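Before we proceed, please read the two lines closing this message. Report back on whether the structure tokens fit the sequence:
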Amino acid sequence: MVFQFFVLLLFGALLLIVIVFRIIEPAYMMVFNKPLYLYFYLFPKKLTINQKQILVNEFPFYQRLSERKKIYFEHRVKEFINHYQFIGKEGLLVTDEMKVIIAGTYTLLTFGMRDYLIDLFKTIIIYPSVYFSNASQQYHKGEFNPIMKVVAFSWEDFVLGHKITNDNLNLGLHEFSHVLHFHCLKSNNPSAIIFFDEFNKVVKYYNDENLNKKLSENGYFREYAYENQFEFISVVLEHFFETPQVFKERYPELYQNVCSMINFKEDYFK
């Protein structure tokens, strides 16, 4: 009798989960344009004191978060470090600081997404500076190779983009934006669906000849943005995080589209 009760209880719980994720959440997303929930960690992973201090020193975004959101941010940074392999090339020693800064950059970009760990890449390769890519037979500062499941960076250029926070050049954000874009075109998880829907609104500024011309003439987005849709999205996201106030003032509609695309909320800091 007791066994039957627990079986029924388990069945009921499973049925409830199915209802929530197959019926309630899609309806919720249609109304509010965001997942039903973002953060649910019974036992959030913790960073070491030194790792946490790196976040404090290197990420003003993290410093502004509410205490509860800081716990979520730290958990995601820790999970990222544990999930991906870091490899230094040409004699470069990968330090804990490198891992935290790279993981923090990725977490910043995906903080509004529930399913943030992406299997499109498994390895992060770090070169001391600009490197020759065997895949493209060209020199690169960074690249995402979905076939090899690799994201590669020139550490010199990664740090330069990270330290200068208002020039709209951020190598880490740029390459991780490529990963996120590629993932959301293929995935059907809630965050990816929302990203893709809003992406279509954002990319109209690239596809529409008149809008494209106005953007180009204004000069806010660098010329590289107009290479193709992938570069456009990555450059737009660099600007979104580096000079948000300027972006918001000049292109309020596009800014809101980007906010919706990555589910960026001002209440992160409350």
In short: Confidence is low (pLDDT under 50) at residues 7-21. The chain has 13 helices and six strands. The CA atoms of residues 161 and 170 lie 4 Å apart. Residues 49-269 form a domain with the Cyclin A; domain 1 fold (CATH 1.10.472.150).
